[in-house]
Design goal:
Blueprint: H1 2-15, H2 19-37, E1 45-51, H3 56-66, E2 71-76, H4 80-88, E3 95-99, H5 103-110, E4 113-120, H6 124-153, E5 161-168, H7 175-206, H8 208-213, H9 219-249, H10 257-281, H11 285-301, H12 314-319, H13 324-338, H14 346-366
Parallel strand pairs: 1-2, 1-3, 4-5
Antiparallel strand pairs: 3-4
Helix pairs in contact: 2-11, 7-9, 7-10, 7-11, 7-13, 9-10, 9-14, 10-11, 10-13, 10-14, 13-14
Length: 371
């Protein structure tokens, strides 16, 4: 009996059009792609330098930082305010290193100096690790300078550089401040991405889809009727998220709630469209759920939600541009923590809109209606 049951299961898998592909493709994709993306070592931190000293020691210090694999010096600005306005606020840099005037003189005469590190803590992991790495480089440089001065003056080495850290947009480095918006995004993904994926399949299995196919209802209205309920569900989930974030964690969006709801409307439309495409292409609920979970897990891990995108290999960074979750994760954190307006998130919002139109058009085309 057991032999025939096992044979039956293998025949069912073999006859299924999707399951054999998923069985072989999913392990390959997960093992080859995600270990690179899910790298918790923060690299390629974009650093802007403000050198107020322009001395030999300050140049040596900058060169030492630039030689590290963790940092990429993207620009040099004349003042801290210029660095904030031109780089950090526009999202073109992750941290500012400010070297004070008389940096070299203080090291030589007073045996100490102070540098300022300001990190963009919208991405808490990158902000925390970025300041820690830079402080470590500064301490190492300090030790070298101390030994040089001690050898020259024939005295005992002393610690010469003091580091002052500042976390921008998240001063207390509160982990919840950037994870709670991300969890809201994950809830919307699960509710408005996975649930529509099984919607049409359920009707296929119960036989009601056949009755719908013989009605004069157009495909456009049929797909629209499938999307609207999940649109409402998405807004309810988001609203509950805002309430819980405030009551439990004391988190209030710095930006406008209207901006967040506008971005959510487009994002929910995108995820619902993707879910309906999966549902149209699936024959059973099990098949639809497996495909949905496969894509949603990859989307989440490649969105920058858990690990910074800049720490991924270049080819993986390019793949994230085809991930709608990347853009919505940026919008949630930018509006929630930085107070960005619609004009500030227009590139991300435009990309989401393109995904929404494409996904729902595909859902309408892929639905096979027989009139």
């Amino acid at each position: 009996m057991l032999k025939y049951l096992i044979e039956k299961e293998f025949k069912l898998i073999k006859r299924n059009r999707i399951l054999p592909i998923i069985i072989f493709v999913m392990p390959v994709v997960f093992l080859l792609l995600l270990p690179f993306a899910a790298d918790f070592e923060v690299k390629n931190i974009r650093l802007v330098v403000v050198d107020n000293d322009h001395s030999g020691y300050s140049k040596r210090f900058i060169e030492k930082i630039g030689s590290s694999k963790y940092y990429h010096i993207v620009a040099s600005e004349n003042s801290y305010n210029d660095a904030m306005r031109n780089r950090i606020e526009r999202g073109n840099a992750d941290a500012i290193l400010e070297i004070p005037q008389h940096f070299e003189r203080d090291l030589v005469k007073q045996k100490k100096s102070t540098i300022l590190i300001s990190a963009n803590a919208v991405d808490g992991m990158k902000g925390l690790m970025g300041t820690a790495y830079l402080a470590s480089v500064a301490m190492d440089f300090s030790k070298n300078i101390s030994m040089e001065l001690a050898a020259f003056n024939d005295v005992a080495p002393q610690q010469t550089i003091q580091v002052t850290n500042r976390a921008l947009f998240n001063p207390m480095m509160n982990y919840k401040a950037y994870m709670v918006p991300a969890i809201m995004m994950m809830l919307i993904v699960l509710m408005c991405g996975a649930m529509p994926a099984v919607n049409i399949v359920m009707e296929k299995e119960t036989g009601t889809i056949e009755q719908m196919n013989v009605t004069p209802v157009k495909k456009f209205y049929f797909i629209l009727a499938k999307i609207i309920p999940f649109w409402v569900i998405g807004f309810i989930v988001l609203t509950l998220g805002f309430i819980i974030a405030y009551l439990v964690y004391g988190l209030i969006p710095v930006g406008s709630l209207g901006t967040l709801y506008l971005a959510a409307a487009v994002f929910i439309l995108t995820m619902s469209g993707i879910g309906l495409v999966i549902s149209n292409k699936s024959d059973t609920m099990q098949q639809a759920l497996m495909i949905a979970m496969f894509f949603l897990v990859v989307f989440i891990l490649m969105s920058g939600l858990l690990t910074p995108i800049a720490s991924m290999p270049r080819w993986a960074q390019l793949l994230t541009y085809a991930n709608p979750l990347r853009y919505y994760a940026e919008i949630m954190r930018f509006v929630y923590l930085k107070g960005c307006t619609i004009s500030d998130i227009l590139p991300q919002l435009s990309s989401l809109l393109i995904f929404a139109v494409a996904a729902n058009f595909w859902a309408m085309v892929s639905y096979k209606k027989q009139s």
